[in-house]
Fold this sequence. Notes:
Layout: H1 2-22, E1 28-35, H2 42-54, E2 59-64, H3 67-73, E3 78-81, H4 85-93, E4 94-99, E5 115-118, H5 146-151, E6 161-164, H6 167-177, E7 185-187, H7 191-198, E8 210-214, H8 225-229, H9 233-243, E9 245-250, E10 267-270, H10 277-282, E11 285-288, H11 293-297, E12 304-307, H12 311-317, H13 324-327, E13 331-333, H14 336-344, H15 353-362, H16 369-382
Parallel strand pairs: 1-2, 1-4, 2-3, 4-5, 5-6, 6-7, 8-9, 8-11, 9-10, 11-12, 12-13
Helix pairs in contact: 2-7
Amino acid sequence: MLLKLIKAxxxxxxxxxxxFVSFFTRRNSNIWVFGSFGxxxxxxxxxxEYVINEDKKVRAIWISKNKDSVKEAxxxxxxxxxxxxxxxxYSLIAKVYIFSAYISExxxxxxxxxxxxxLWHGIPLKKIEFDITTQPLVNLFRDxxxxxxxxxxxxxxxxxxxLSPAQYVSDYAFKSAFRISDNNIVIAQCPRVTHLQKCxxxxxxxxxxxxxxxxPTWRDDGRDFFKQSKLDFQExxxxxxKMNSIFLVKLHSATKxxxxxxxxxxxxxxxxxxxxxxxxxTADCLITDYSSIYLDYLxxxxxxxxFCFDLDDYSRNREMYFDYESAVCGSVxxxxxxxxxTLNRIENIPMNWETRTKFLSSSSDASNGNQxxxxxxxxxxxx
Length: 383
């Protein structure tokens, strides 16, 4: 409660005065600031790298509250902490803000009169933003109180440009979820999918016959879903040893569960704030639940297991855009026993080609996505 009060006071007495000042700063159309919610990750990372390498007229600057994110970004280009003097200065004079979810990934309170570009972070299976009608997230968006809008204004921002991987995705989700029209949408392949297709796998896991990546999404109610899943890590580790394989666990960046698998030789917990792209390229099989990560993974044409042990509970807390089983692209397993059986027959997992083709064709409308996005941003600058 005290932390919430401190945050509210900071927003009111420091944030909003800074926001007022940001209306009067002179913006430079050649300075674009980038940010994301994790450690130098997602679509904004890969567009940042592309702009640095391909567009010498644009000064691309990474801005983040996360020190590790700034450190990683500096390996590629210019980067500053959000609240450092240079971070605030460049946020005040940049004309373009590019982010992967919310403008607060850079700084809402320096953002008056900027072009706001949201690259988002996935093709939605579950309902997002203003399409959500269930607790608790409906109170962040559609039913947000006046106080919440004041304290967390980034959730109410309307974007000048939103990336969509296909018109199909715009129509069933993005236009209503973000309260936006086709005029403010750019159709292009996501930068992270472009990178996934061309990047190299991680060398450190080359000693194993198979690499399994378990990437479950977060639960809105914050419950410890691992207990509900009844995952027996000892039994799972024994299977991995038998198969000379490794089982990587990559939690969603919003997941707060404490999980210790350090005593298991062939199970590894990966930092949930790190970018998952090279992990995905390394994995011979993806195991997930309701995360849209599998829709990115489709471009690799590899087996997918949908471990949906809590489908009924999850559906009550979060509506979906589709009937779940009509949208899956691999084996559906409901409990740990089924998961173990499926892992044992990894070579025979059904690929569901019809569903895969539908999603691939609907999510790859543009192959040169990075330049399409850059060109669209520049067209807004001209206007």
